[in-house]
Amino acid sequence: MTDNTYPRLFQPFSAGRLQLPNRLVVLPHGTGMVHDGNITDDDIAYYEARARSKPAMIITGAIITHRSSSLKSHALVEAYEPRVLDMLQKRSDAIHAHGVKLLGQIVHLGREMLGGETEFPPAAPSPIRSPRDPFPPHELTQREIATLVQSFGDTAANLKRSGHDGVEIHGAHGYLVAQFLSPATNQRSDAYGGTPEKRLRFLMEVIDAIRTRCGDDFILGLRLSGDEEIADGLGIQDTAHIARGLAALGAVDYLSITVGTRGSYVKDITTPEAPAARAAQIIREASGLPVIAGQRINTPEMGERLLAEGAADLIGMARAFITDPDWIAKAARGAADRIRPCIGLNQDCRSFSPHLHCAVNPTAGRERLPAFGASRPTASPRRIAVIGGGPGGLEVARVAALRGHRVTLFEARHSIGGQFLYASSVPHRQGLRRFIDHQQGELRHLRVQLELGVCIKEPTQLAGRFDVAVLATGAVAKPLPAEYAAERVMSWFDVLENGVPAPAANSHALMVDDGSAFWWTYGVAEALIEGGWQVTIVTPSTAIAASIPHESVGPLLSRLGRAGTNYRVLTTLYEVASDGAHLINVTNGEEEVVDSGLVVVQTGRRAVTTLADKFQDASVEFHTIGDCVTPRRMSHAVFEAHRLAGTL
Ligand SMILES: Cc1cc2nc3c(=O)[nH]c(=O)nc-3n(C[C@H](O)[C@H](O)[C@H](O)COP(=O)(O)O)c2cc1C
Ligand code: SF4
Q: Does the pTM of the predicted model rise above 0.85?
C-alpha cells in the first residue's frame, strides 16, 4: 500500500523496454557470498530479502565475462561458465517471485586486478599501471580485444538463459570498458584509441555483441562515471558527449550515473549527499536517455527531490538497501523515520571479510541464520534490564522488544548514545548521530521503557524486577601516562569531552597515535584543525590511517593535506620536556625534539567492568556485550547485541 507522501518515487516509469512500476532501483553490489565463481544460497537469500520490498529493478553485483578477469579467490561470479547458470536461475526465480525485474551487471576488470589477486596477467588498452595495483597491464592486441568483446555477448546470453531480464554493462569506475573510454588509460593509436569516437569503439562492439546474442527484448543498460575525478580522466562534458552518441544510435535503454573511479566511488559519510546528481542531470539533459542517479541517496525525501528537479528518472541505492531491506515498504507507507539509516563508514560492507556485512544491520549477509531473524517472536516473554544506552545497549533493547520481551533500558546520563556521541562530534561525522536518533525512535515505537539519569551500581537495584540483565556499560578512555604529564599535553578524550583548546602563540599541535590508526585519532586531528591548530600526526604505524576503510582514506588525506598536515610515521612520543616533545623513530631510535604548543595523545580505551564484576556473584541471569567485554568498533557492539537478543 502506498500512501502518497512520495508520489514521484512511486510513479510508474515507461520508456521502451523499461516498463517499471516505480522509480526505485537496487544498484549493483557484490555480496561476496560466492563460492568457486558461483553464487550461494546465502547470496540468494540476501537478494530475496531486498526483493520483498518491491524495488522496480535489482541490478546484481558485478559478474565477470571472461576467465582472464577471475580472481584467485573466485569471489566474483563467473557467468561465462555454464556450470553456474542453475544457481543464477534459482536467484532469478526468487527475485521474480516478488514481481521485481532482474539485471546482471557484467564487467571485465582490465588493469584493476584488485591488488594482483589474479591468475591471469592484467590487461588493458594501454600498458599504464593502475595506481592501486602493483603490476603494469599487458596491452591488449586486436585479436584479444575481439575475444573479450565476444565474452560480453556470451555472458549476456548466459544471463538471459538463466532468467535475467537484461544486463548492465559496467562502463564506470575505471574497469575495462571505462579504460577504453578514458583518455587517462587509453593511449592507443589504432582503431580503439586516439579520438573520443575511437575510444568508444570497444563499448559499441560490446553493445553489438550483446544485442546480436540476446535479441531486441532484452534490457541493456550502461553504467558510466559521470566524472572520473582523476587527472586526465573523463569529465562531465566528456561523458555527456558519449551519452549523446549512444542515444543517437539507440544503443542502450538507460544510463546509471555515479562519480569517481575504483577506490572513490563508494562515497563515505564525509561526502555531501547525492554527489552525482549534477552529473546525472547534465547527462540526462544532453542525451534524453533514462538516467539512474546513485550515490549517497539515503532518504525518500532526497530521492523525491532529485526526481522533482529532473536530475534523474530513476533513483538508485546500494547501501540504503543493505542497511534496511524494507526501505521501500517503509517509504511507501510514509514511515521514513522507521528506515534504518546507512551511516556511510564503509567499514563492514566494503571490507568483504569474508563477505558483505553491515555496521548497523547485523542481519545483512546472515539472512539464513536463525539467531538473526529479529522478528521471530519469543515463546516466553521475559523482563529484561539493559544497562547502558550506547549502540550495543540500544540494539539489544530493540531486538529483544521486537521479539516480545518487556525491556527497560537504564542509562546513567540524561541522554542516550554513549561514546558514539563523541564519534559523531568530530568534523564531517555528525551524520553518525542519525543512527542513535533512529534507535531512539524505534525504542519509542516498541515501548521500551527508558530510565535516563539512572545509574545501576549494584545488582540488588534490579532484584526481583527482572529475569535477565544485559550489561552494555561500554568503555572509557585510558588516562594520560604519567611520563607525558605536562602543561601542554592532553589526552584525545580530553579534547572530545572538553573541546579543542584555543590555539597558543605556537599553534603547532602534535596528534600522537598509538598505532590503532583509527578515527579516534584522525577525528580528533580534524577537530584540532577545525579549532585552528596546525597539526603533525605522529604514528608508530608504517602508514597513515591504516585502520580506516580505504574509501575514506582518500578524502581524509585530502582534507588533512589542504590543512597543511605533516606526518611522522614509524615514530612514537618518548616524553614532553621543557624544550619540546621528544619523538623517537621506532626503527633506529633516532630522537627528534619538536617545539609544539599542544600535544594530544591517543591513550586508547579500557572496558568498564565494575558492574559486570559485581554480577559474577548475583543470582540473576546476566550477559555482557560490546565494549564492556573489550573495546572495539561500534559494529561489534551492535552485532553482539543483535546476536544475544535473538537468543534471549
Ligand atoms: C558492498 C558493495 C559492493 C559493490 N559492488 C559493486 C559492483 O559490483 N558493481 C558496481 O558497479 N558497483 C558496486 N558498488 C557500488 C554501488 O553500486 C554504488 O554505486 C555505491 O555504493 C554508491 O551508492 P550508495 O551510496 O547508494 O551505496 C558496490 C557497493 C557496495 C557498498
Ligand atoms: S556498513 Fe556502514 S556504510 Fe555499509 S551499508 Fe552498513 S551502515 Fe552503510
A: yes
